[in-house]
Amino acid sequence: MTDKRLVPDIKTANWTFLLMTVLLLGGSMLLVPVIGIGINTLINELVWILGLVLLVSRKKGYSYQESFKLKKADGADLFLSALLGFTIWFPAMFINTIIEKVISANIGALDIDIDISFDGSPVQAVLLIISMTVLAPACEELFFRGFMQSAYEKYNRRYSWIIVGILFGLFHIPNGISNLVPATMLGLVMSYLMLLTNSIWPPIVFHAFNNLNAAFLGGISQIIAESDKIPAWFIIVLLSSTIFFIVFLLALKKKYSKNESVDSGFEEEEEKAGQGKFTGMWIAVVILILFGIMEIWARLIGLE
Fold first, then answer.
1. Which of 90, 81, 82, 80 has its CA nearest to residue 241?
2. Which end of the chain has fewer CB atoms at under 10 Å, N or C?
3. 32-47 per-position pLDDT tens digit
């Protein structure tokens, strides 16, 4: 008789990632024209992301406490995570905007009529903001930093945060290929926060404050996109926010370096090679990359 697993194994985590990707993308293509982007985003977060991972965990008998890292976080960690999420948004947004400008100029613009998705209803806009600022930070972090990273930590703790951070970035390709680099950057930071603190709450707080900026300061991106030169005031904001981000991250890292972090007593598991351990992940990655290729093709042929 073998001991019951408390956290998912690599194979289960990767196939769950694939299933979530297929359900979310397929569901969005079918539902957005019918129910609008706001309600659809609500369904994406609560059903395809959170609902699925809770169902799998329950079915497999995993511990929610261990799988989702539901450990109490230090107040200082949460405060620094909020500052990190706030400050990194400015360089991440700038990178996104510049990449989009370069792609649009050299490949072609992709115009999407958002009004079709909102259907002229402020309810859709409100639901989208709620999903961005409340549901996405909780649901996506429980999936990626909780479920996925718990599995990868047991396989290889040193590189787990890098793998999960990259998967998080690839997961955002359907939102636009210009999102790939900044989303990967954010994913890596959130995964690193999990590695340092061993708690889901710092990544959730980081994600929430970053998305709050996106929801309420997103207009800055449009100003930069439409400007021939980067405004002087934004250069100051960009440089100062980047410096503050580095300072806050180093402060958090120094704290855990002194306390020897949470690595003490952590044991990796030896998993059998093969048996489709990474198959689900690679299929999901191919699907996400195909969405990026389809976007490039749509830009080239001028599809609207």
1. 90
2. N
3. 999 999 999 999 999 9
Residues contacting 31, CB < 8 A, separation 6+ = 39, 40, 43
Q: What integer pLDDT is reported at residue 115 of this predicted model?
A: 45
Closest CA to 5 of 52, 57, 55: 57
Q: Residue 125 — pLDDT band, cuts 50, 70, 90? A: confident
> Comparing C-alpha atoms, which of 36, 217, 215 is closest to residue 130?
215
Residues 298, 109 contacting (CB under 8 angstroms): no
Packing angle of the helix pair 219-226, 75-106 (nearest 10 deg): 30
Q: Residues of 247-285 as b/e, b for ≥16 C-beta within 10 angstroms? A: ebbeebeebbeeeeebeeeeeeeeeeeeeebeebbebbb
**pLDDT tens sequence across 4-35:** 789 999 999 999 999 999 999 999 999 999 99
Give me 268's structure tokens.
Answer: 């990796």
Question: What distance in Å separates the CA atoms of residue 256 and residue 196, rounded to the nearest whole number?
Answer: 7
